[in-house]
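Deliverable D5.2: sample structural annotation.
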Amino acid sequence: MASMMKVKDDTIPIQRIISVACRNYMAFDGLHTFNFDRGVNTIIGGNSSGKSSLVRLMIQAISESSLRKQSRNRWDIFYNNHEESLIEMKFIAGDKEHYIRRLMLGDTTTDLHLYVGNGEGQIFYRDGEVIEYLKKLNPITTIDGFENSRKDFYFWTSGKTVNVNPLFAKSKEHIALINRFLPLAKGGVCQLKIVGNDVMAVQRNGELRHLSMIAGSDGKIIFVIAKIVNLIQRIANKTLSKVILIDEMEIGLDKSKLDGLYSVIEDVANEYDCQFMITSRFVNGRLNPIRINRRKIPSCYEDDASLNFHQLIKNFFNSKAGMRTIKNPPFSNKPTKKLTFKKRSFKWKP
């Protein structure tokens, strides 16, 4: 769901993120540094590799709150939040370079530094002063999963009747902008048309179908493009921050469909001078890839016997979070053994 805050007249737009670094934050064990290019950046890694952690790292860096931003991710309970962690980020806002350094103990910020500008004109802020300054920054747009909800997809179903959202159907400018980028996706739909109060999809074979009848990957492609161009319109009209973080865009799409979407996003980024951070499981063909090859093994259970990992995870979630031992595992025929945490660390390679 995209998050967008009301913009004040005296706010400062974030133009792009230069780099972020962290030590012992969420999925990252030890010190890690990530550099970003203009345009589209792809955060690449497998499941539980730390892709979402990197997205949330950027959000946490400029958070107005002294507490760590929480999410609905159930894997959060595995991370050692009691440890001291460090977050650093360099970014451009209001045409000035910013460097922020946040020291955290568990979920709470204990020390906060901010440097604005370079050379003799550089200004230094600390702790409460930083919080007040961060309130002036326009928020970064974050999209955490593209859910095909009735509201977000611009139509809803009532009984057996499908009605198109009038705000979407009457927005000729929005439809025209979608149609500019839709052919680049190379999907089954090449154009959208407003017919009366309905939005119709023109397929490549010339067939005209109601938007609500377009399902599967073609429906997802239309939805993603519509969401992105809607955000671009708001960024342009309200001078919002030009950084867009997208997590979990790939659900329901194969690589070929994603290649088409990346072509759209690249074109949007170049034309509107925006910076995109997109998580991906695919490597080939991704733009400005940032690989996350290793994940932190947080406090996990380990035994000499070959245990069924999925059953072990199930047992953990059915127990109290933070429980240090499991006795008499139902999947083991061997005598009772005490399962304990063993902490490990891995060398990370970019």
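Annotation notes: The chain has seven helices and 19 strands. The longest strand covers residues 14-25.
The annotation will be released with the project's public dataset once the embargo ends.
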